[in-house]
Structure formats: structure tokens, C-alpha cells
Amino acid sequence: MSKAIQGTVANKSGDKTVRVRIIERRTHPKYKKIYSITKHMIVHDEKNQCALGDEVSIVPCKPMSKTKSWAVQDVVKKSDAAPLVDSNPTE
Q1: Which of 3, 18, 31, 71 could join 61 in a cystine, given CB atoms 3.0 to 4.6 angstroms apart?
Q2: Hey, where are the domains in the chain?
Q3: CA nearest 71: which of 7, 27, 26?
Q4: pLDDT at 80 (0 to 100)
Q5: What gap in Å lies between CA 89 and CA 46, rounded to an integer?
Q6: Is the dihedral of CA 38, 43, 45, 48 positive or negative?
Q7: Which pLDDT tens digit goes with each residue over 10-40?
Q8: How would you classify residue 16: left for phi > 0, otherwise alpha for psi between -120 and 50, otherwise beta?
């Protein structure tokens, strides 16, 4: 089985679905410059435990939809940011 990948929750879209940003750093073979590649994965969150900005560990799973074939293994670190609250609610 593949290793778990760590990333940051970038978007909470719908029920039991999150979008995880994975930043991969590589070194250019000739020029030796370090550059980063950003990938986004659509991930299944069975328990709805992830929030925006959380560090999560994800693992591959059987395809659940056209684009969703990863699942949240566990939340490594919760985000410090408080959820956004509307300061001027309409009544």
C-alpha cells in the first residue's frame, strides 16, 4: 500500500468532501534550483472532522466518484484560525 501524504485543507466543499493542497519541493537536475509544485486532491472526509487550514494525512482508497479517490487518514494539526463569523447578520 502507498504511503500517506500530508497536506493542508484548502476548501471544504459539500458533505464529507475536502480539497487538500499538497506542496512538493523538487530540485532541478541541471541547475540545482529548488522549486515547488502544488497539487490539489479531492479527498473523502467520512467523519466531517476537517476544517479550513488543518494539516491532514491522506491515503489512497477505492474511487468514490470521478475525481475522489483519496481518504483522510487523520488530522495531524488543527488550524489556529477561528471560523469566519458574519459581523453584520441580516435578519
Answers
A1: 71
A2: 5-77
A3: 7
A4: 83
A5: 31
A6: positive
A7: 999 889 999 999 999 999 999 999 999 999 9
A8: left
C-alpha cell at 41: 486532491
Q: Can you read off the three cell numbers belonging to residue 71?
A: 481518504
Distances (CA, A) of 39 to 48, 83, 86, 87, 89: 22, 25, 31, 34, 36
pTM of the entire predicted model: 0.79
CATH for the stretch 5-77: 2.40.50.140
Closest CA to 51 of 22, 24, 72: 72
71 strand-pairing partners: 44, 59
DSSP state of 66: S
C-alpha span between 84 and 24 (Å, rounded) = 29
